[in-house]
Amino acid sequence: MQSDAAPAPPAHLVVVPRGPRLAPPAWSALLAGLPSAEQHRLARLQRWEDRQDSALGWHLLRRLAADLGASVRRTPTGRPVADPPLDVSLSHGGGWVTVATHTGGRVGVDVEGPRATTPALARRCLSAGELDWFEDAPDAAGRQERFLRLWTAKEAYLKATGTGLGRDPRTVALDCSATEPRLGGAEGARWGFRSSNPADGVHLTVCWERDP
Ligand SMILES: CC(C)(COP(=O)(O)OP(=O)(O)OC[C@H]1O[C@@H](n2cnc3c(N)ncnc32)[C@H](O)[C@@H]1OP(=O)(O)O)[C@@H](O)C(=O)NCCC(=O)NCCS
């Protein structure tokens, strides 16, 4: 069994800024490399930022998977999956796009830009212990920091397990007071977490399964 002090990180984490809107030829080339189902889905998105984020994410996922001889598709619940033993995850937020791959079990990733945090939002998303830690922050900036740390870890875990927000996020209990987040209970030893800040106010957490 791996030591909690030295968890193996996921095989690969790529984080890129969305960048300015792509010129039509570059956008067409990006789109042409994606499966037709993804092209149709992207065409239904209203905002160019959302289209570009998602297309960049799928382009990166497919490139990383292809380097390992695998392909990527989407399950009926929307989760990207690859040929075993590879697993993949994708997130976009705050002008950043990130993809994670892992060959030792499941993986999930979440990135969020700065966002206002209200007590009502925290109560809808956090477990009792998480809420105590959140409310214990010295000021509003501290509460926002703690919320995003908890939230990205929670979403990364829910994406790794594939339920997404189909599971009540309050049923996931995390301790984010140490350097890296940790799940409470029996699941704690099974899942590794690593948090980082690609830019000021931007929070990213990747969660991977240690021993499936
Ligand atoms: C997936 C989900 C967590 C996305 O969170 P978000 O912060 O809005 O967006 P993110 O950018 O972090 O993640 C979006 C990516 O997650 C991935 N994703 C979608 N559903 C997923 C799932 N069930 N599990 C893991 N990943 C999922 C997709 O790749 C998506 O990007 P894409 O649309 O460009 O392909 C959230 O929208 C969700 O849970 N949706 C499913 C809800 C559901 O299943 N409800 C069931 C009825 S109760």
How is this fold's topology laid out?
Blueprint lengths: L11 E6 L6 H9 L3 H8 L4 H20 L4 E3 L5 E3 L4 E7 L2 E7 L4 E6 L6 H7 L2 H8 L4 H22 L12 E2 L6 E2 L7 E6 L6 E7 L3
Antiparallel strand pairs: 1-5, 2-3, 4-5, 6-10, 7-8, 9-10
Spans of at least 5 consecutive residues whose pLDDT stays below 50 are: 1-7
Percent helix among the residues? Answer: 25-40%
**How would you describe the shape?**
globular
Any idea of the CATH class?
A: Alpha Beta
Domain 4'-phosphopantetheinyl transferase: 106-207
Organism: Kineococcus xinjiangensis
Protein name: 4'-phosphopantetheinyl transferase
Family: Belongs to the P-Pant transferase superfamily. Gsp/Sfp/HetI/AcpT family.
Structure, described:
With 212 residues, the chain is of the alpha+beta class. It has a single domain, classed as 4'-phosphopantetheinyl transferase domain (Ribosomal Protein L22, Chain A, Alpha-Beta Complex), CATH 3.90.470.20. Helix content is 35%, strand content 23%. The chain has six helices and ten strands, in the order βαααβββββαααββββ. The strands form four sheets. A three-stranded antiparallel beta sheet has the order 1-5-4, covered by helices on one side. α2 (36-43) runs antiparallel to α3 (48-67) and α5 (128-135) runs antiparallel to α6. The protein starts with 11 loop residues before the first strand and ends with a strand. Mean pLDDT is 92; it is low at 1-7.
